[in-house]
Amino acid sequence: MSPPGERVALVTGGARRIGAAVSRGLARAGFTVALTYRASRREALALARETGGRAFPLDLARPGGISRLSEAIGREFGRLDLLVHNAAVFPRTPAGAVTPAAWDGVFAVNLRGPFLLTQALLPLLRNAPGGGAVLFIGDAGAGRLWPGYLPYCISKLALERQAAAWSKILAPRVRVGIVRPGLALIPERFPKAEWDRLRARGGARGPDSPGKIAAAVLRFARSGRYNFY
Questions:
Q1: Domain count, the chain
Q2: Any domain includes 86
Q3: Residues pairing with 134 in the sheet
Q4: Which CATH number do you get for residue 153?
């Protein structure tokens, strides 16, 4: 259990890249941070030691793992004040060559997983002192519908609607928001030439570095407001 009065945040995909910046920022702000990882166990355990938090394995594509995580959060901390949906997959899936398996793999992690995890953690979020909060990490560039990444872009657009739905359903006890990063970090396996072209065109408006994204998450956590970011 967490010490009385100590806020708890859960960051999915919180061990690397943007997720690591968010985890560190929340820890510096006084949150006890639980972070999840799928393949980055070494980084996750190291970051948990650094921040004084906990690391949990999670594959968002597997509903059983979501149930186990929600039970573990309740058992280990007894409360949850903030849920940050950061984990996502970004595979190259060119238009005209998208298989059902590729489509399902993206949507299982980027859309279904956040829904099921939010749902599983609702009792803790609703019981958080002062009310809980859920924040989705979107993508300001998803509306450009990059031809090589259509399932990803569509999943992120759908995630915005999911966030809006949860916002209406859970108010006023649980706040829900979304941060839409700009071109912050080149995704793994993204062609560098294509990335450079996007940045040269100005990319998409939004926080454009891990530090700025982490700051936006912290503003939402502190604000007490219901609007989207």
A1: 1
A2: yes
A3: 83, 176
A4: 3.40.50.720
User: Using an 8 Å Cβ cutoff, are 81 and 33 in contact?
Assistant: no
Predicted TM-score of the model (pTM) = 0.91
Q: Does 228 fall in a domain?
A: no
In angstroms, the CA 8 to CA 132 distance is 10
> Which tokens is 91 given?
């595979």
| Residue 208 pLDDT greater than 80, yes or no | no
Handedness of CA 68, 71, 77, 80 (dihedral sign): positive
Domain assignment of residue 185, yes or no: yes
Please list the active-site residues.
152
Looking at the chain, the whole-number percentage of residues with pLDDT higher than 70 is 85
Range of the domain at 108: 8-223
13 within a domain of the structure (yes/no): yes
What pLDDT, on a 0 to 100 scale, did the predictor assign at position 179? 92
84-105, pLDDT tens digit by residue? 999 999 898 888 999 999 999 9
Helix (H, G, I), strand (E, B) or coil at 85: strand
Let me know the angle formed at the C-alpha of 147 by 107 and 181, rounded to the nearest 5 degrees.
65
